Structure prediction request, 150 residues.
Amino acid sequence: MTQAEVQERVQRKFPILRRVLSADVRIEHPVVRLRSGSDDIGMELDISVEMPVLGMRSGTVGASGKLNYNQAERAFYIDAAALERLDVPGLRPELHAKVSAAVGQVLQRTLATVPVYTLKGRTAAETAAALALEKVVVRDGMLVATIGLP
Prediction:
Protein backbone atom coordinates (compact mmCIF):
# COMPACT_ATOMS: atom_id res chain seq x y z
CA MET A 1 0.00 0.00 0.00
CA THR A 2 1.51 3.27 -1.04
CA GLN A 3 1.45 6.40 1.07
CA ALA A 4 -0.93 7.91 -1.50
CA GLU A 5 -3.38 4.99 -1.07
CA VAL A 6 -3.27 5.28 2.70
CA GLN A 7 -3.63 9.08 2.46
CA GLU A 8 -6.70 8.78 0.24
CA ARG A 9 -8.47 6.40 2.62
CA VAL A 10 -7.59 8.37 5.76
CA GLN A 11 -8.78 11.66 4.24
CA ARG A 12 -12.28 10.27 3.82
CA LYS A 13 -12.69 9.94 7.61
CA PHE A 14 -12.18 13.62 8.39
CA PRO A 15 -13.14 16.17 9.68
CA ILE A 16 -13.81 14.83 13.17
CA LEU A 17 -15.30 16.82 16.05
CA ARG A 18 -14.91 15.64 19.66
CA ARG A 19 -15.57 17.15 23.07
CA VAL A 20 -13.10 16.49 25.90
CA LEU A 21 -12.15 18.36 29.08
CA SER A 22 -14.70 21.12 28.35
CA ALA A 23 -13.04 21.67 24.97
CA ASP A 24 -14.47 21.22 21.50
CA VAL A 25 -11.72 19.90 19.24
CA ARG A 26 -12.02 19.67 15.47
CA ILE A 27 -9.34 17.78 13.55
CA GLU A 28 -9.11 17.79 9.78
CA HIS A 29 -6.86 17.74 6.72
CA PRO A 30 -4.72 14.75 7.74
CA VAL A 31 -1.37 14.24 6.04
CA VAL A 32 -0.02 10.72 6.53
CA ARG A 33 3.69 10.20 7.27
CA LEU A 34 5.18 6.74 6.86
CA ARG A 35 8.47 6.19 8.67
CA SER A 36 10.81 3.72 6.99
CA GLY A 37 12.12 0.87 9.08
CA SER A 38 9.42 0.91 11.73
CA ASP A 39 5.74 0.23 12.26
CA ASP A 40 5.24 3.84 13.36
CA ILE A 41 2.88 5.93 11.34
CA GLY A 42 2.50 9.65 11.75
CA MET A 43 0.05 12.35 10.83
CA GLU A 44 0.06 16.08 10.51
CA LEU A 45 -3.38 17.58 11.13
CA ASP A 46 -5.10 20.94 11.28
CA ILE A 47 -6.95 21.55 14.54
CA SER A 48 -9.42 24.00 15.98
CA VAL A 49 -9.92 24.14 19.73
CA GLU A 50 -12.64 26.02 21.59
CA MET A 51 -12.46 26.28 25.38
CA PRO A 52 -14.22 28.62 27.81
CA VAL A 53 -11.00 30.39 28.92
CA LEU A 54 -9.38 30.19 25.50
CA GLY A 55 -12.05 31.01 22.98
CA MET A 56 -11.45 29.59 19.50
CA ARG A 57 -7.90 28.89 18.38
CA SER A 58 -6.58 27.05 15.32
CA GLY A 59 -3.27 25.50 14.49
CA THR A 60 -1.51 22.29 13.52
CA VAL A 61 -0.38 19.16 15.33
CA GLY A 62 1.93 16.26 14.65
CA ALA A 63 1.22 12.84 16.13
CA SER A 64 2.43 9.30 15.67
CA GLY A 65 1.74 5.84 16.95
CA LYS A 66 2.13 2.15 16.31
CA LEU A 67 0.34 0.56 13.39
CA ASN A 68 -1.91 -2.23 14.65
CA TYR A 69 -3.93 -4.74 12.62
CA ASN A 70 -7.35 -5.87 13.89
CA GLN A 71 -7.91 -9.17 12.11
CA ALA A 72 -11.62 -9.41 12.98
CA GLU A 73 -12.27 -6.05 11.30
CA ARG A 74 -9.53 -6.49 8.67
CA ALA A 75 -8.47 -2.95 9.51
CA PHE A 76 -5.32 -1.08 10.51
CA TYR A 77 -5.42 1.44 13.35
CA ILE A 78 -2.91 3.74 15.03
CA ASP A 79 -2.47 2.65 18.65
CA ALA A 80 -0.79 4.57 21.46
CA ALA A 81 -0.80 7.79 19.45
CA ALA A 82 1.34 10.48 21.01
CA LEU A 83 1.17 14.19 20.39
CA GLU A 84 4.62 15.22 19.12
CA ARG A 85 3.99 18.85 18.27
CA LEU A 86 1.32 21.46 18.92
CA ASP A 87 1.47 24.79 17.06
CA VAL A 88 -1.34 27.18 17.93
CA PRO A 89 -0.43 30.80 17.16
CA GLY A 90 -1.33 33.21 19.95
CA LEU A 91 -1.75 30.47 22.57
CA ARG A 92 -0.65 31.76 25.96
CA PRO A 93 2.04 29.58 27.57
CA GLU A 94 -0.09 28.90 30.65
CA LEU A 95 -2.80 27.34 28.45
CA HIS A 96 -0.44 25.17 26.38
CA ALA A 97 -0.65 22.19 28.78
CA LYS A 98 -4.47 22.25 28.89
CA VAL A 99 -4.80 22.47 25.12
CA SER A 100 -2.15 19.75 24.65
CA ALA A 101 -4.02 17.45 27.05
CA ALA A 102 -7.35 17.96 25.28
CA VAL A 103 -5.92 17.57 21.78
CA GLY A 104 -3.78 14.60 22.81
CA GLN A 105 -6.81 12.75 24.22
CA VAL A 106 -8.88 13.42 21.11
CA LEU A 107 -6.08 12.27 18.81
CA GLN A 108 -5.40 9.12 20.82
CA ARG A 109 -9.08 8.12 20.89
CA THR A 110 -9.72 9.08 17.29
CA LEU A 111 -6.69 7.40 15.74
CA ALA A 112 -7.38 4.21 17.73
CA THR A 113 -10.92 3.99 16.32
CA VAL A 114 -10.66 5.42 12.79
CA PRO A 115 -9.12 2.84 10.44
CA VAL A 116 -6.07 3.92 8.49
CA TYR A 117 -6.73 1.20 5.94
CA THR A 118 -9.26 -1.63 5.64
CA LEU A 119 -8.62 -4.79 3.64
CA LYS A 120 -11.80 -5.33 1.66
CA GLY A 121 -10.59 -8.12 -0.60
CA ARG A 122 -10.51 -5.89 -3.69
CA THR A 123 -7.46 -7.77 -4.96
CA ALA A 124 -5.95 -11.22 -4.47
CA ALA A 125 -3.18 -9.64 -2.39
CA GLU A 126 -5.72 -7.98 -0.05
CA THR A 127 -7.62 -11.23 0.37
CA ALA A 128 -4.42 -13.13 1.20
CA ALA A 129 -3.28 -10.42 3.58
CA ALA A 130 -6.60 -10.42 5.41
CA LEU A 131 -6.34 -14.17 6.00
CA ALA A 132 -2.68 -14.64 6.87
CA LEU A 133 -1.16 -11.29 7.83
CA GLU A 134 1.84 -11.65 10.15
CA LYS A 135 3.21 -8.11 10.34
CA VAL A 136 3.28 -4.78 8.60
CA VAL A 137 6.28 -2.48 8.37
CA VAL A 138 6.95 0.78 6.63
CA ARG A 139 9.52 0.50 3.86
CA ASP A 140 10.39 3.13 1.28
CA GLY A 141 7.22 5.13 1.93
CA MET A 142 4.90 2.13 1.68
CA LEU A 143 3.11 -0.22 4.07
CA VAL A 144 4.56 -3.65 3.34
CA ALA A 145 2.72 -6.73 4.64
CA THR A 146 4.36 -10.03 5.51
CA ILE A 147 2.00 -12.92 4.89
CA GLY A 148 2.53 -16.35 6.45
CA LEU A 149 1.20 -19.69 5.35
CA PRO A 150 -1.98 -20.70 7.19
In short: The first helix runs from residue 3 to 11. The longest strand covers residues 55-70. The mean pLDDT is 83.
